[in-house]
Specification:
alpha+beta; Immunoglobulin-like; six-stranded antiparallel beta sheet; globular
């Protein structure tokens, strides 16, 4: 009996060591903030698919629970974001991602600078977001217990979620671009701003955005460092807390936090409140 107990302890130690090593390697592989300037792949396509990047990213932000890469060519700046799991996905579905560019790098001034420009995508609504996250995604989790047995159901859900996403993600919100009069533009626009998001067969979410550099008034030859902000907005409507034990987005009929907030799933707080970060970037030359 003692030998079995010692054996189990050894197995547990090896298992824990492996977990720690995996986490350490992941943190080493992906810094929280992108560290390099990067040329976009020549075959880059804004389609919600990271295949031209070989499904790798430049950074992992543990607060926002997302991977991301910023890159550029001579004409555009690109943002690609990847998420795994329902929590970050929920925040994006309920409020989209806002990508802001500031010419300033002063941390005290850049956030509210009048010269900032920003693009938000997707622009959807609570109901459509909740269907994708609290309906389709949770159902998908059950199917993954046996991917071989449930292959047809997984494929069907994959196509269904992307169809729903295509129907929901039709608008882009722009702010601070003087050449564009409308604040809401179609994804099928002539401004050169392109955005698309889609799910893969593991129901990982990939978001891609391209913005022409001409709107920033900068060139790859300038060698100028500027600031960017990536913000996961969360719900754009007032959130109510009618069910303290609810998971996901609560009902939308009462304003204010609950008295017994300590019983609320912290993942719900994450989904319902914005999170963001600032960093700097210099356009990469050829």
């Amino acid at each position: 009996m003692k030998n079995i107990f010692n054996f189990l302890k050894a197995v547990l130690f090896v298992f824990l060591f492996a977990i720690i090593s995996v986490v350490a390697n992941a943190q080493k592989k992906y810094p929280q903030i992108q560290q390099v300037s990067l040329r976009a792949p020549a075959d880059i396509k804004i389609d919600g698919n990271a295949k031209e990047w070989h499904n790798t990213f430049q950074a992992w932000t543990k607060v926002d629970k997302m991977f991301y890469t910023i890159s550029n060519d001579d004409n555009n700046i690109y943002l690609i974001v990847g998420t795994e799991g329902p929590n970050a996905l929920g925040k994006i579905m309920f409020g989209g991602i806002t990508f802001t560019i500031s010419h300033l790098i002063d941390k005290k001034k850049r956030e509210n600078d009048a010269g900032n420009i920003s693009v938000t995508f997707p622009v959807t609504n609570i109901a459509k977001g909740e269907v994708l996250v609290n309906g389709d995604y949770k159902y998908f989790g059950n199917l993954m217990n046996d991917t071989i047995k449930n292959k047809k159901e997984i494929d069907s859900l994959y196509f269904t979620m992307n169809k729903q996403a295509t129907e929901a993600f039709k608008l882009i919100k722009v702010k601070g671009i003087k050449e564009i009069d409308d604040t809401l533009i179609s994804i099928y626009n002539t401004t050169g701003i392109h955005a698309m998001a889609a799910f893969d067969r593991r129901i990982h979410y990939t978001y891609e955005l391209a913005i022409p550099l001409k709107y920033f008034g900068i060139s790859v030859n300038d060698g100028i460092k500027f600031s960017y902000n990536i913000k996961l907005n969360g719900p754009t409507q007032t959130v109510a807390y009618t069910n303290p034990n609810a998971r996901g987005l609560p009902n939308m009929d009462v304003v204010g936090p609950p008295d017994n907030f300590q019983h609320i799933d912290p993942r719900m707080y994450f989904q319902n409140y914005p999170s963001d970060f600032w960093a700097e970037y210099t356009l990469a030359k050829k």
